Protein: GNAT family N-acetyltransferase
Organism: Candidatus Enterococcus myersii
Amino acid sequence: MIIKKYTQADEKALFALIEQEGVEWAEYYDTKKEQYQKALAHSITYVLYEEELCGYCRCRNDDGFGIYIYDLLVDKNYRGKSYGRALMQQIKRDYPQVAVYVMSDVNSYYEKQGYAEVGTIFAVEL
């Protein structure tokens, strides 16, 4: 397993991983692909390789107030090997003085990892 920071050379493999995940991730590779490419360029993103790109994590640093994980995805064929945890641990290793938070709609996964729930996210509507 190799974890490294994302570069544009990883783009094709990363979008292939996202696309195989299906409709829940469709806007990232379909209707908002250009926007997501820009988001990747301005994010802290790690990719995980095990022969091929099989996982990634995208997050943003809030100027030292916290690192917020927006996206965490591991290929279905590689799940159950603690790759998601390894990606999050890499963030903590690289930013040891900064709190790391996850923005999630899959809370059961993070609860299973032993992470504490510290808040809730609300969508602001007009």
User: Anything to note?
Assistant: The CA atoms of residues 46 and 122 lie 26 Å apart. DSSP finds five helices and five strands in the chain. The two ends are 45 Å apart (CA to CA).
